[in-house]
């Protein structure tokens, strides 16, 4: 059975929703799935200053946390992060930065990887965030399997680099049909590629 790890950080729930959808789609595609949250790093006062962040933190603080073993275990890994100034969040980056021992042993290489992100605005940095995330994957020796425009759904969401969502000003725009279709497609695509690699 192909093993898929969905590893994400989310402050206010958008990336969490996307991660859950990817995990469900990965299971439908026949994979064994680990859905894992990376630990929060922000100080308590920063979280408390934002009601949506506090609510999401409290609601998800007991979810399974990502470990290096989840990446080593997986045949395919999907990393998710909200954009931070067009870049990867420090929380996900911190997790990636703890993978040095596994990287040095070559345990992160030769796997399938792709990414997902969300921004407040349409041009707020979705592409730059995914490209920044992929810098790390090159160092792993990973195989980035971007969705490209390999399915009609990609002409609806329009992001060949991964999957992304625009949350709008209140960070509460729900995922639409275009994003859901693109998430399902990306999960199925990486699972299928990983299965072919293992064969
Ligand atoms: C410090 C910080 C920096 C951000 N930078 C950007 C940005 O550059 N562009 C943008 O569109 N949104 C930006 N945002 C908004 C987040 O990307 C948005 O809140 C995210 O999609 C929410 O995802 P989440 O609900 O999973 O936390 C920023 C938010 C924070 C807190």
UniProtKB/TrEMBL annotation:
GO terms for cellular component: membrane. Residues 4-191 form the Flavodoxin-like domain. It comes from the Bacteria. InterPro entries: Flavodoxin/NO_synth, Flavoprotein-like_sf, Flavoprotein_WrbA-like, FMN_Rdtase-like_dom. SUPFAM superfamilies: Flavoproteins (SSF52218). One of its GO terms (molecular function) is FMN binding. PANTHER family: FLAVODOXIN-RELATED PROTEIN WRBA-RELATED, FLAVOPROTEIN-LIKE PROTEIN YCP4-RELATED. Belongs to the WrbA family. This is NAD(P)H dehydrogenase (Quinone).
